[in-house]
């Protein structure tokens, strides 16, 4: 046994002396201490020895193992010191490599900003399903099945189970599906909800992408009136776009608000006078209005006691009015040259 151990150590010494880098050292480690190492094979032989011989043999192997470990560690630290000595000098005055720091996507930045502005007015951020029942997306909003007003929402229908009351499922074409859901969730006003979600419509051009984001506001309480709605927009506009932009309400029609408006903001180039970009001096932000009594009833809220307003605007559109993006599809092309500008 002693002789065998001696031989193993001698061979290991040779191997270690020839090692020139740390990778080859890893290999040697496996050869010396792994399952198929000579040392391991020798250990297995102990069982063939007589009872009297075994302790002595065990001691010899242990001793050899310790010796091998020491040799190995010595070689390793020698190699490390050698490699370090090759790096002769470090120029501490040389300019460092700057790490590129990323930032949130423009849409995420806008979402954070919008939530912060509305939270100052007491609106709470809520989320609802982005695949929702027809009833929440249309019917509860006073758009019965087959009503032509639905055409404007160029909806993606999906294969889904049919529910006798709720109908089939759609990819939400607007965030207004959250209106009745919020009324059902809170059961009783006051309601101050802001809902930001992905929406889907079958359209694509410079100002539309099939997936986009909307933010929807809903406020329901006693004695809510149109000046409250206008005041909310003025607060948002001043905070999001700056103090020089004005908003106006233009009569419009939505089935789920009465009266309904389209909200416009003064063009930032001509400040409302009219220019080649905007023509009239105003740019359209999105829809709004006083919540229709039928929608309140669908949410089990008594329209004789409560009134409310709602609005829903596209985030991409709102961003493009602040940062003059010529084509909103750029937002989703993941082109770093575009994204890093913001
Ligand atoms: N949901 C409407 C749209 O997508 C916007 C809207 C929301 C209008 C709330 C009125 C009230 O165009």
From TrEMBL:
Listed GO CC annotations: cytoplasm
Alphabetized Gene3D superfamilies for the sequence: Bira Bifunctional Protein, Domain 2
Transmembrane segment boundaries: none
Cofactor(s) essential for the protein: Mg(2+)
InterPro entries named among the record's database cross-references: aa-tRNA-synth_II, aa-tRNA-synth_II/BPL/LPL, Phe-tRNA-synth_IIc_asu, Phe-tRNA_ligase_II_N, Phe_tRNA_ligase_alpha1_bac, Phenylalanyl-tRNA_Synthase, tRNA-bd_arm
Subcellular location(s) of the protein: Cytoplasm
EC primary class: ligase
GO molecular function list: ATP binding; magnesium ion binding; phenylalanine-tRNA ligase activity; tRNA binding
Pfam family, one: Phe_tRNA-synt_N
EC numbers on record: 6.1.1.20
Alphabetical GO biological process terms: phenylalanyl-tRNA aminoacylation
Cofactor mode of binding and number, as noted: Binds 2 magnesium ions per tetramer.
Domain (Aminoacyl-transfer RNA synthetases class-II family profile) ranges: 114-333
Alphabetical keyword list: Aminoacyl-tRNA synthetase, ATP-binding, Cytoplasm, Ligase, Magnesium, Metal-binding, Nucleotide-binding, Protein biosynthesis
UniProt subunit comment: Tetramer of two alpha and two beta subunits.
PANTHER family attached to this UniProt entry: PHENYLALANINE--TRNA LIGASE, MITOCHONDRIAL, PHENYLALANYL-TRNA SYNTHETASE
Family: Belongs to the class-II aminoacyl-tRNA synthetase family. Phe-tRNA synthetase alpha subunit type 1 subfamily.
This protein's name: Phenylalanine--tRNA ligase alpha subunit
Organism: Candidatus Curtissbacteria bacterium RIFCSPLOWO2_01_FULL_38_11b
Gene name of this polypeptide: pheS
């Amino acid at each position: 046994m002693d002789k065998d151990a001696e031989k193993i150590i001698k061979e290991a010494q040779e191997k270690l002396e020839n090692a020139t880098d740390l990778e080859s050292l890893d290999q040697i480690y496996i050869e010396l201490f792994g399952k198929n190492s000579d040392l391991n094979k020798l250990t297995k032989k102990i069982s063939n020895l007589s009872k009297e011989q075994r302790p002595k043999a065990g001691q010899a192997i242990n001793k050899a193992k310790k010796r091998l470990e020491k040799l190995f560690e010595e070689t390793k630290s020698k190699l490390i010191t050698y490699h370090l000595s090759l790096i002769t000098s470090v120029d501490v005055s040389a300019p460092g490599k700057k790490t590129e720091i990323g930032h949130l996507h423009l849409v995420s930045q806008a979402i954070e900003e919008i939530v912060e502005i509305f939270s100052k007015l007491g609106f709470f951020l809520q989320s609802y399903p982005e695949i929702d029942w027809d009833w929440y997306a249309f019917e509860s909003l006073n758009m019965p099945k087959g009503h032509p007003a639905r055409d404007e929402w160029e909806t993606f229908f999906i294969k889904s189970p049919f529910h006798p009351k709720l109908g089939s499922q759609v990819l939400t074409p607007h965030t207004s599906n959250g209106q009745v859901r919020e009324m059902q969730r809170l059961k009783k006003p006051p309601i101050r909800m802001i809902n930001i979600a992905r929406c889907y419509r079958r359209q694509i051009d410079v100002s539309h992408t099939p997936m986009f984001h909307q933010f929807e506001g809903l406020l329901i309480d006693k004695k809510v009136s149109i000046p409250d709605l206008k005041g909310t927009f003025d607060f948002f506009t001043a905070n999001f776009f700056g103090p020089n932009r004005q908003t106006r309400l233009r009569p419009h029609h939505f089935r789920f608000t009465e009266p309904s408006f389209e909200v416009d903001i003064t063009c930032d180039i001509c400040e409302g006078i009219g220019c080649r970009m905007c023509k009239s001096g105003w740019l359209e932000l999105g829809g709004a209005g006083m919540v229709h009594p039928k929608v309140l009833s669908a949410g089990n809220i008594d329209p004789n006691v409560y009134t409310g307003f709602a609005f829903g605007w596209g985030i991409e559109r709102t961003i493009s009015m602040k940062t003059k993006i010529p084509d909103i599809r750029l937002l989703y092309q993941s082109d770093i040259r575009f994204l890093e500008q913001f």
